[in-house]
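Good morning C.,

I know you're traveling, so I'll keep this short. The sequence:
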Amino acid sequence: MATHLTQARAGIVTPEMRDVAADEGLAPELVRERVAAGTVVIPKNVHHDIRARGVGLGLRTKTNANIGASGFHQLLDEEIRKLEAAIHHGADAVMDLSTGDEIDRVREELLRRSPLPLGTVPLYQVAAEASIRSMDVETLFQCIEKQARQGVDFMTVHCGVTRDTVAKLRAHGRLAGIVSRGGALLAAWIEATGRENPLYEHFDRLCDIFHEHDVTFSLGDGLRPGATGDATDRGQVAELLVLGELAERARARGCQVMIEGPGHVPLDQIAANVQLEKRLCGDAPFYVLGPLTIDFAPGYDHITAAIGGAVAAAAGADFLCYVTPAEHLRLPTVADVIEGVVATRIAACSGDLVKGTGGARERNAAMSRARKALDWETQYLLALDPDRARNYKEGSEAKGSKVCTMCGSLCSMNIDSATTARGGAFVPAVASTAGAARPERAPDGCPLPAAR
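The tokens, ready to paste straight into the viewer:
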């Protein structure tokens, strides 16, 4: 079985590489070279019929939305609505983190409906169906293989949570301990049994499964900091060193690899964390949760995560996992999913503007020109959330007017344009924009939410 990585190394430009190149405005051969080098991955299982998307060097910073049911809250219809909301508002991938008793049913339905790459954490299903302390290694690998055969495109596997890295974390001491669900489960198993993490001990077997179905590794940060005061400590760095070694082994076996990263990190350490991952992991694409820059904003953690995500993306992070307002509090609703996706896309685009990737500069300039021209239809089209932008303007007293209610007849854009056009003689204008032609697409080629 050939994977995207083995084909790239053989000099083959696959249809998936051409799709990524077309989406990103790059030459197909450049995409092939970066896939071959492991600096770009294409998370697409051979069993999942979706349009390929790339993650990594020189590409638009991607956004992931976590959804999924739990033992406390299991409504398949709601998870489908969350998926639809994430797609509509521009997410690039989704992860099903279900832990209830209908995990297979939820995953199968999301895979069937999702045009986006879908990721999972197989350990969650194993833990949900039996006590983690009695986890059977064979059962764990059977679950991983089952999900791979179903079409899961990328999997979080916490291979760096080892006896040694857990011991280093315990010796250093932490404010919040282990906050990763997968990390906590594996650490508990290791400390209860005295045995090594099977995902680490049998890593070659894991590579065989991933290679057969072309599942992309998302090497999980099970020891990530869940408090800013724990950032960049011995446990986190020890795990990252292991992940760098495993990434090299996986690539040697023809498997694609992303590296997951923190977590809760103060602003002054975010760029250093990105640089450390790139250095230790051979420039593998970096997939970060947030990072959240403070710990005391429950209900607003989508904002704290967007602040950290913008800094991380600008520093070179490739993939941002969203955080919703419900983080640390409860499962997100459909409305929370929308807030999380949009906030994270703002962070991603802010990073792209710095990196010069993804057409962000062109789109930014196009919005500036549309604002200068008071061209509302183009502004709505270029907005990350066209529906919300339109509703704000058209729901005001200035509906149909060229200006808005902020400045009215004293609109600075209108004054400046009119003054320039009339050689200094200002005449206020409030001409209607009703019936104006709507542009078909943004000039940068980025995927835009469909207008409703």
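Safe travels,
E.
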